[in-house]
Amino acid sequence: MEKTLVLVKPDGVKRGLVGEIIKRYEMKGLKISQIKSVVPTKELAEKHYEEHKGKDFFDKLVDYLTSGMVIAMVLEGENAIKCVRIINGATKYQDAVPGTIRGDFAYMETYNLVHASDCEVSAEREIKLWFE
Ligand code: CMP
């Protein structure tokens, strides 16, 4: 079964949306194989977002991810990577359609509630980073 890393970011935790978000993955049939809560260190956040290093929003992104508790989980299922990204919705809140997590709840560019791996290579790297 395919695996993907999902984060409920600090805004999702602070807004009390953890249960609502996890419910949507479970309703789709995805299984949680690992889960934990963590306040990420700057080092972990910088490694997680290393592909965005050098972009003008990088520091803001790292400050945001380290600003509070994150729920990190590994979800498993057939085509888990694609399924989770569809459930999450478009990265930009203004493009995210109703019925998706971001379409229903996100209203700011950086603070978009959830993160999910975008391909198998990222999933493997991110799962190692958060769970080993
Ligand atoms: P995520 O799916 O975690 O992956 C990269 C993150 O960068 C993305 O969610 C957004 O939170 C953030 N992001 C992407 N583009 C921008 C942008 N133009 N300005 C601010 N934040 C952004």
List keywords for this structure.
alpha+beta; 7 helices; 132 residues; four-stranded antiparallel β-sheet; Alpha-Beta Plaits; binds adenosine-3',5'-cyclic-monophosphate
Order of helices and strands: EHHEHHEHHEH
Looking at this structure, what is the CATH superfamily? Nucleoside diphosphate kinase-like domain
**Overall shape:** globular
Structural class: alpha+beta
Please tell me the CATH architecture by its name.
Answer: 2-Layer Sandwich
What does this entry look like structurally?
The chain has a four-stranded antiparallel sheet with strand order 2-3-1-4, sandwiched between helices. The chain is an alpha+beta fold and 132 residues long. 42% of the residues lie in helices and 20% in strands. The radius of gyration is 14 Å and the shape is globular. It has a single domain (2-130), classed as Nucleoside diphosphate kinase-like domain (Alpha-Beta Plaits), CATH 3.30.70.141. It binds adenosine-3',5'-cyclic-monophosphate (CMP). Adenosine-3',5'-cyclic-monophosphate (CMP) is lined by residues 57, 61, 91, 109-110, 112, 115.
Summarize the structure.
With 132 residues, the protein is α+β, with helices and mostly antiparallel strands.
